[in-house]
Amino acid sequence: MIATNALRCLAAGVLLTIGGAAAAQTPVKIGLIGEFTGPFADYGTQIYNGMKAYLKIHGDTFGGRKVEIIVKDTTGAVPDRAKRLAVDAVTQDGVDILAGFGLTPNALATAPVSAEAKKPMVIMNAATSVITTRSPYIVRVSHTLPQDTQPMAQWAAKNGIKRVFVLVSDFGPGVDAEGTFVKTFTAAGGEIVGTARVPLQNPEFAPFVQRARDANPQAIFVFLPPGGQTISFIRSYEERGLANAGIKIIATGDLTDDGVLEAMGDGTLGIVTSFHYSYAHESPENKAFLKAYVEANGTKMRPNFMACAGFDGMAAIAEALKKTNGSTDPDALMAAFKGMKITSPRGPIMIDPDTRDVVQTVYIRRVEKVGGALVNVEFDKFADVKDPGK
Question: What pTM does this model have?
Answer without folding.
Answer: 0.92
